[in-house]
Amino acid sequence: ADGADAFESLLKKAQEGVAQRRLAATRLEKIAAALKAAEERLQAGEPEKAAEILRGLRGQIPPGTPEAEKAGALRERIQAATDEQRLLERSRAFFDALFAENWGRATEFVSPEKVAGKKHGKVRGGLQLMMGMARLVKAKRDDFRVQIARLDAPRRSARVIPEHRTGLKWEEMKPMRWE
Predict the structure, then answer these.
(1) DSSP letters of 46-90?
(2) Residue 174 DSSP code
(3) Poorest-pLDDT segment among 32-41, 80-89, 111-120
(4) Are 34 and 53 in contact (CB under 8 A)?
């Protein structure tokens, strides 16, 4: 009977081990599927949805696994995409403020280094000059857009490339450095 009990105990432990490995494999499959879904949302231009998927995985990904590495890299790409999306929104808000002739709001988008040491009126005057030139060519708000905004690696500044429409053709303007 002792041999049979030992065999039963050993068999039970083996079955529990197999069940635990199956559970772990299923958990990793679910994590991999969620990471794939987050990647797809990011590629579809929906970084906020990708971030939401990753937040749902918080605490579930075992450290030191390939899944943890993928999640970390994906998290960085989501942050960069989110930052670039915010940058595009800010650039649109800048043009909105310019065309609304809201000089105070438009000045908020000017680099602090360019504002430092200058009187507020000089910055405002520069913005008014830009708008005067736009009015001279009868430009409207819909004639300006920003489609390209790239952050530098430490995310301290960005290269923003505005575009101007002439007839049906969009032309890139001089790139701007935003701090």
Answers:
(1) -HHHHHHHHHHTTTTSPTTSHHHHHHHHHHHHHHHHHHHHHHHHH
(2) -
(3) 111-120
(4) yes
